[in-house]
Specification:
- The chain is α/β, with parallel strands linked by helices.
- The chain has a single domain, classed as Vaccinia Virus protein VP39 (Rossmann fold), CATH 3.40.50.150.
- It has helices at 6-25, 52-59, 80-85, 99-112, 153-163, 176-180, 182-195, and strands spanning 39-40, 50-51, 70-74, 91-96, 117-121, 133-139, 164-173, 196-205, 214-222.
- The strands form 2 sheets. A 7-stranded mixed beta sheet has the order 5-4-3-6-7-9-8. Strands 1-2 form a two-stranded parallel sheet.
- Helix 1 (6-25) packs antiparallel against helix 4 and helix 5 (153-163) packs parallel to helix 7 (182-195).
- The mean pLDDT is 94.
Length: 223
């Protein structure tokens, strides 16, 4: 195992403190609670259930990124995916209801000195951005098991469409139930394809949870 630099050790301790505070104070369900971090981030040598850099590579969507694009990640967890994507676009916002995860993202952003990222501790229902986006990520996040989601699926999609610029792209990854039971995804697919144009669809590897080794990934365009 590679020995970590002192600055990385200090950062890891700070991030793990947020995880500890979350376990004590956050009453809602937390993905990967027993393992620590849902998202891993090789750039800071931090393991997690889903490796951020490999995850983006598997999606195969960097061709949609340019230095002029502005993106939003809904339910960004600890923000590592947001921070990684920031290398390829003009700006990325991440909205996440769990304030302890938001603090992890902010501390990592400061450590890496990343300027083109904004983190917002909020439910997506309550999120009121001052801009529209060229790319919106909904990565296994259109429904949750923590009881904090009030939007119906139609309301969720309607808000996303309202936040997307004309011609913008929705990057969609299915939640676990929709992956291992395709029939559950059919009604959602009908809604999505009614509002957006489907450009790509593929199955991508997923390490978490272990009973869902692959997830469906789709790219839509806002017409």
């Amino acid at each position: 195992m590679t020995e970590l630099e002192p600055k990385l050790i200090e950062l890891h301790k700070k991030l793990e403190q947020h995880i500890s505070e979350q376990k004590s104070n956050w009453k809602s369900f937390v993905y990967a609670q027993q393992m620590g971090f849902y998202q891993g981030f090789e750039e800071i040598k931090l393991p997690g259930c889903r490796p951020t850099e490999k995850r983006l590579d598997r999606y195969g969507i960097k061709n949609y990124f340019t230095s002029e694009k502005i993106a939003l990640d809904i339910g960004c967890n600890c923000g590592f995916f947001v921070l990684h994507v920031s290398k390829f676009v003009k700006h990325v916002d991440g909205v996440e209801i769990n304030p302890y995860l938001v603090n992890i993202g902010i501390d990592t952003q400061k450590f890496l000195d990343i300027k083109n990222v904004g983190f917002f501790p909020s439910r997506f229902e309550d999120y009121k951005p001052t801009r529209k986006y060229d790319i919106v990520f909904s990565l296994a996040n259109d429904d949750t098991i923590d009881g904090n989601t009030e939007f119906t699926f139609n309301e969720y999609i309607e808000k996303i469409q309202g936040l997307l610029n004309e011609g913008g792209h929705l990057m969609w990854e299915t939640i676990s139930p929709d992956t291992y039971d395709p029939e559950l995804f059919k009604p959602k697919r009908l809604v999505l394809e009614k509002r957006f144009r489907l450009l790509e669809e593929k199955m991508v590897k997923s390490e978490y949870p272990v009973n869902v080794p692959e997830r469906r990934f789709l790219v839509f365009q806002n017409n």
